[in-house]
Structure formats: C-alpha cells, structure tokens
Design a protein that fits this description.
Blueprint lengths: L1 H9 L9 H4 L19 E3 L9 E9 L2 E8 L7 H11 L3 E4 L4 E2 L2 E2 L9 E4 L2 E11 L2 E10 L6 E8 L11 H14 L5 E4 L5 H19 L4 H9 L9 H17 L4 E2 L3 H9 L1 E2 L4 E2 H16 L5 H4 L37 E4 L8 E5 L6 H10 L2 E6 L19 E4 L2 E10 L3 E10 L8 E8 L12 H18 L3 E6 L4 H19 L1 E2 L1 H11 L9 H17 L13 H14 L13 H7 L1
Parallel strand pairs: 3-11, 4-10, 4-11, 16-22, 17-21, 17-22
Antiparallel strand pairs: 1-2, 2-3, 5-6, 7-8, 8-9, 9-10, 12-23, 13-14, 15-16, 18-19, 19-20, 20-21
C-alpha cells in the first residue's frame, strides 16, 4: 500500500488547463461542484442558440487507442436535463453508464433524468421501453425521439448501484463484467459515463477500461501514466487514493481470473470442460482456476487480525490459521470482555449474492465460548441457524450447544427446544432464545437446521440434492425473516461453511442473472475469510455441479502466506499481464473482440 500511496501523491492535481466556459457567470449554475469544471480544449460543446447554451459540464476522454471513446459527465441538475439529452442526441450515444445513486447519505447526487414511462425534455421525447434488474445493476432501455426527426434512437443505461461515493465496490467481479458488457454494447459513438461530479467513480471506471485494453494489446500496464493522462482531460479523475489502489486490486483480479461467468444453459458443458486435462500443463482446468484463486487469496490475508491474536483471545480460536480479520468480524455487545469492552468471537460476516454481510460464519463453540455463541445469535438477531456437522462424530471439545430436550441456560441466555423434526438428510428444530439481562426484550425465535448426511470422513456431502433441499428451506424462511442474519457453523468455521455459502451464492446468481460463476462466488467468500473453500478440485467442482442441479430442479487445504509484502501488488500486476494475455479461454481474456478493434475497422 505504501508504494501505491506514494504513486498517488505524485499525480498532478487541481485544474491544469483553462476552464473559461465553466467560469462564465451564466454557466456557473450548471456546475454541480464549483471546483469540478471541464477544460475548454476537451469539453463537449452543444449547439449554441444564445450565450451559454453551448455549455454542459462534460468532457471527451480517450480510452486505449480510441480518442473520445468516453464522455465523462457530472450527474445532471434540474436545470440541465434538456442539455443532457441534447448531448446524448448530438453524440449519437447508445450507452450510458451511471455510477451513482440519485440520493446518497441524504444528499442529492444526481437528478433523475429519465421518465418512469414517457416524458418530454425540450425538443426530446424519452420513452422508457424496458427495465431489467439484477443484483447491483439496473439496465434501462429508452427510445429517444427529437421533434421533427421521424426515427427514434435506442439508448441503453447501465445503472450500477454498488459503488459508494469516494469509495470502491466490494466485489470487483461485477464491475469487471460491467466493463465488458459496456464494450460489447457500445457503438462507434462515445459512451457517456457519469457519477455525481464525474471524476472519482467515473474516472476509475474509465481508467479500468483503458488499462484492461492496454494489458491485452501491449502485455504491460502503467496505472500512473494512465491516470495522469486522464487528469489532462478532466480534473481530478480517479479522485481518491483508495480508488487509485482499487485499480491495482481489480486489475489483479481481472488478469488472474478473467471472465469466468457462464450462462446457465451452458453450465453442464462448462463443468465437463473444466474437468478435462490440459495437455500443456498436465493439470485440469479446475486446478488452474483454483490456482489463480489461491494467488489472489494471498492479498486477502493482508487484513490484520489483531483482536484474534490477543493473548486473552487465543484460547477462543480452534485453529491459529483460521482467524477473523478485524474489519470483517462481528463484535459482541451482550458478552463483554473482563475490561468491559465488546467481546470477541471467531466469526466473520459473509456476503450472499444479493446482500452484503447477511450471513455470519463461525466455528463450533468451545466450552469457554458457549455464552459468546448465544450472544452472537442474540446481538445480531440470527433467526436462522445452519449446522453442517454431526456433533457425535467430533472429539470431546465439540459440544451440543443447544438443549437436546427441554431447556438450558448459558450465562444470561435461556434457550428452549420447541420442536425437533427429522427429515431426509437434515434435522429441523425450533428454538427460543431469551436474554435474562434484557427482560423487556422480545423472545428470539430461531429455526435451526442440522445436516446429517455429511460424514466427517467424507470431503463432500453424500447427496448434493440434500444441500439444495436445505437451501430451499433456508430461502423460504429468509423471506419471512426480513433483515435478520443467518448463522452458518461447522467444526472449524471454514471448510464446510465455505462450500455451503458458495453453493447458496450460485443458486441465487442463477435465479437473478441466469449466470453461474463459481470463481466469483469463491473470490467473494475468500475476501471475507481466505480459508473458505480450500480444495482445488472437489469443493469447486461440487459448487459448480450444484448450480446446474438447482437449475433443473427449479425450471486440510493449501497453505497461504500469512503476511505477504503489501507493496508487491504493483509488481504482481505487472508480472501477470503478459501471462494473462496468452491464456486460453476466460482467464485474462476480458474482451474476446476488443472495442478498439471494432472502431479501427469502421
């Protein structure tokens, strides 16, 4: 990180070229932010009917070997909606990328410039033809007609919802896919990209597109020179050092893993393809894909685990190799440490496909952490609990942490078994949980599933259909539990939890996107706990075969370096570029037909 910070500080900043048009008194109301103005030499000039009518806060920006590939713009204001559609018409734009919410942190970031059905904006009539929503992305298609012109034009808007202001997305895979989609859909006319100011998120998106194309064409990338060049065309492009560092991280993921998503109709053939032996390397493509994931996981290990490593907490960890990062772990408010500070438990938040931090993954409790376990359920309203082991198969340090009949007390927590129903492959129980220190608090009702057909001596469940059936029960219960958390536990808080969560991710992805991407599922999990999914073949294979099975139904691992050198990310990216460009298939091949090539042919 130190190397990237130093690079970022060397970038030129502030206004580098004249911005006379943006400073004109009659144009100042058209600027969302006083310090973000387009340079005169590359601003978009509208047809002039009166002084100031030719002005919009937008700039032409180059991509790799493609002059004016993008227009970087601020989010429209109430008084610039007509200008915005005038620009779209003038530039013959067919694709808009929107990287901001309309309102963020109670502040208006962008005026809604499109209709819910049909609306006139000056001489332009805009009709919303279709809206398609997937996780984190809304795609809208519009018909744009100008008065006096007989033929309308089609415009597609990609509204990406997962990018916080001044921050970075949590999941680079979705952003990489968006960059690829935009290049596939874009015509020879400029792509309009905007956030709120049109420099931070917008600049990062444009830089990513340029760098991926540079990597493919040249076998090298230069992040510093790229951002410097963008800032010559629009002020403050890639606005924060966090966004600058993110470029390296997303490039690493893109170059290592590439595009690994597969349409569900091709899922089975893709699984067979991954099982084939690559005669050149004498390894399966599963193994190659997982090797890339392992390399990426080294950088996820950089997050410190200071709380887990404290002497007072070390006995609460079943394995010193599986520790929660400080930035990922839940803190306990109902079970305090001896000093009165929030308590520690070896657990991490995990994302589902649709929601951030909806799941909590933890190890089975020790005798000394039984109270902490129930405190975790209480503090985070975990109304859904999944156990992936049979306790009797484990050693004496593993306890049945619930009352097998009647009720039990764990510290201040009172737990009652309401019902128990054996099923095919798992047992379903209902529990109630009360915190006697909070007598006025309502009772927490918990649905508790315990998997029974996954023997400890087997790496995988005996029947994948059991996992899918359990996930179906869990999904039905989720619809009723609103925003409550799901707690998933296994003997070490990693091995079985990872496979279960990855399979759940894929099932959601198939329903939401019609796409299956096991590599993305594992990458997402490993960002939150690197030890989730640690087997190169069987775990990933099971996750991928579970996906196609769900589609039909509904229509010790490798060692990881503890503390890699954080400054090595830049050099690692450079090492990966030439290797990734020559690979067969998806890894590293983010553009099968580059947009640059299509434009040069025109």
């Amino acid at each position: 990180m130190a190397g990237r910070d130093a690079e970022y500080r060397k970038l030129v900043s502030g206004l580098l070229h004249p911005c006379l048009a943006g400073k004109e008194p009659y144009n100042q109301a058209k600027n969302r932010y006083k310090s973000i103005l387009p340079y005169d030499h590359c601003r978009v000039v509208l047809p002039a009917t009166e002084p100031g009518a030719d002005y919009i806060n937008a700039s032409y920006v180059d991509s790799y070997r493609s002059p004016k590939f993008f227009v970087a713009a601020q989010g429209p204001l109430p008084g610039t909606l007509v200008d915005f559609w005038q620009m779209i018409w003038q530039e013959k734009t067919s694709a808009i990328v929107m990287l901001t919410g309309l309102v963020e942190q109670n502040k208006t970031k962008c005026e809604q410039y499109w209709p819910e059905q049909k609306q006139e904006y000056g001489d332009f009539t805009v009709t919303l033809n279709n809206t398609w929503t997937s996780t984190g992305l809304v795609t809208r298609t519009f018909s744009l007609r100008k008065a006096g012109c007989p033929l309308p034009r089609l415009v597609e808007q990609f509204h990406y919802l997962l990018w916080p202001d001044h921050g970075v997305p949590r999941d680079p895979a979705r952003l990489l896919r968006l960059v690829e989609t935009v290049n596939e859909r874009a015509s020879s006319s400029p792509v309009i990209v905007h956030c709120s100011a049109g420099v931070g998120r917008t600049g990062t998106f444009i830089a990513l597109d340029l760098l991926l194309k540079m990597a493919r064409a040249e076998g090298s990338v230069d992040v510093f020179r790229c951002v410097q060049r963008l800032r010559e065309q629009r002020v403050s492009m890639v606005q924060t050092k966090e966004q600058y560092a993110f470029l390296y991280e997303v490039l690493l993921e893109g170059l290592l893993c590439g595009n690994t998503g597969v349409p569900t109709e091709n899922a089975l053939s893709h699984v067979h393809h991954l099982r084939e032996l690559d005669t050149r390397t004498q390894s399966t493509r599963y193994a190659q894909e997982f090797e890339a994931l392992e390399q990426l996981s080294e950088f996820f290990q950089l997050s410190p685990c200071r709380e887990a490593e404290k002497p007072s907490n070390q006995a609460k960890n079943r394995s010193p190799e599986i520790l929660p990062a400080d930035c990922r772990r839940p803190i306990l408010m109902s079970s305090l440490d001896p000093e009165g500070s929030p308590g520690y438990i070896n657990a991490v938040f995990v994302d589902t496909h649709a929601e951030e931090e909806r799941v909590i993954v933890t190890q089975l409790p020790l005798q000394e952490t039984l109270v902490d376990f129930w405190a975790l359920l209480w503090d985070y309203s975990c109304t859904l609990l999944v156990l992936l082991n049979q306790i009797q198969e484990l050693d004496q340090t593993y306890l049945e942490f619930w009352p097998t009949q009647g009720e039990s007390t764990y510290g201040s927590f009172h737990v009652q078994l309401i019902s128990e129903e054996p099923g095919a492959g798992f047992i379903t129980r209902r529990l109630t949980l009360i915190n006697r220190k909070q007598p006025k608090a309502s009772v927490l009702e918990i649905q508790f599933w315990q998997l029974t057909d996954w023997p400890m001596d087997q790496q995988l469940p005996q029947r994948p259909a059991t996992i899918l059936s359990l996930l179906g029960e869990l999904e039905r219960a989720q619809r009723q539990s609103q925003d409550n958390h799901i707690l998933v536990t296994c003997w070490d808080g990693a091995s079985r939890c990872g496979l279960f969560c990855a399979t759940s991710f894929l099932c959601e992805q198939i329903r939401s996107e019609g796409l299956m991407d096991a590599s993305q599922a594992v990458r997402r999990l490993k960002r939150q706990r690197p030890q989730l999914i640690r087997d190169a073949v069987s775990d990933v294979a099971h996750a991928e075969t579970a996906g196609p099975a769900r589609t039909r139904a509904s229509s010790g691992g490798p060692k990881i370096a503890q503390h890699p050198d954080p400054t090595s990310l830049e050099s690692r990216v450079q090492q990966l570029v030439p290797a990734s460009c020559g690979r067969e298939g998806g890894r590293g091949s983010l553009y099968q037909t580059s947009q640059t090539t299509r434009r040069e042919k025109k």
